User: What shape does this take?
Amino acid sequence: MLPLAQLSLNLPETVSAREVVNHLDDKYNLIEFPPQTTDVTFFDSFDWRLFEKKRLCYLRNTTLYLTDFADRQQVPPLPITGQPHCFWWQFPESDMKQSLARILDIRALLPHTAFSQATQELRITNSDEKVVAIVHLIELNLGTGENIRSIRLREVRGYHKWFLKLRRGLSGFGEAQPDTRVQTLTTVMAAVGRLPMDYSSRFSVPLTPDMESLKAVKTLYQDLLTTMLVNEQGIIDDLDSEFLHDFRVAIRRTRSGLTLIKDVLEPEISSRFKDDFRYLGQITGPVRDLDVYLLMEDNYKARLPEHLQEGLHYFFEDLAKKRGQKLKKLVRALSEPRYRSITSDWQEYLSGEDNEPQGKNSRIAIGTLAKKIITKRFQRILRDGKAISPASPDEELHRLRIQGKKLRYSLEFFNSLFPEQEMKKLIKQLKLLQNNLGDFNDLSVQQEMLEHYLAAIKPGTVKSKKLSAAIGGLLTNLYHEHRRVRTRFERTFTRFAAKKNLALYRKLFG
Assistant: This one.
């Protein structure tokens, strides 16, 4: 059986809903029903994880829905009292909870847009008083003083000719548009100057090989500054830990760019902002470090037998308290003149004219400079990696991890200058090495932190005994994991330095 036809028209501001009613009333037998109002709120993570998976989450009055872009329900609707919870783990056991968990992970579910929808149904009848078509007049009130109005025409089965007739008669009232909720979301977001997917944590800045290096690096730094600024309020409001994560990644990338892409900016500018972004890294580090540990709670508990897990509860209670204190300090720092001066001065420089004296590489084509930078970083990591043996001290792996980061940032900065699929291969191979080195470093840092924590525990109480036992057991587990990760390094690096990978670097960068 064929689906019933439908038509949706977006009404211009010059056409009122009453004009549509009068038009239909003059030509057809018309039954009017009073308007029905519903409140609608669309939710997603800040970085649009649901939308990226072609999912829509919305609250209609007191019921939460999860649909695909074709308006098909993915899970049973969930009745909600008040506003939906921020995180999937706060929802009651349900298919909705499980579906949100798979997509949102640690990100909060946030309202992106809210409006009230008034819908008036008009029924068209024939001489036998049979309903032959249904028209809905829809008005979306965004609370901004400007409402969005549309017409929706629906076919009644058995009366397709009536649908065609009405479609011709209504076509002059507005512009046809898809009759889907994703179109509603797009329309409402556009009315307030936004679009779905207007933020992503992925770093992708389009450059061209012949672009002057100064213009190219300013484009890179401007994108990173924008990322910082749009995440700022989420840090202050403490919505979820990823706001600070993305903020810090943008800081690290900027610092790396100022170090790796040399002699492009004016030396005084480069020197000043290296110091400034180092400061930003310092003030954001303590909260992010605690976030990482708090996110490890389930992982840590899984490493211990059940009778030791109670002690970890006290440990994470303590970390959460410390995080609250550190966050207050960070929020104060973000409101202070120094932070405001850094971001405003950096913005002013990036948006300024390029006529002032700059570095000696400022006019070189970025494609040429990118090859030199990537080749240098790659050769350095090959040299240092080949020098590491099973007897090498841990510090050499930590230094190699830093070199891996520099190469990774270089590849990401200039990704758009080279063939996409081949760059993906290089980044994927580098990620495998970085994962090994990153795990090794994380386990080193975690053991050091836990050893200091254990040494500071005051003995003599039942709580301190349970806490000490849990931390001690965790240290033992992490030590063995640390050794296992270390033994995998040689094999991982050998794959990274394989002839096929070397040939691809030579092909792309010379």
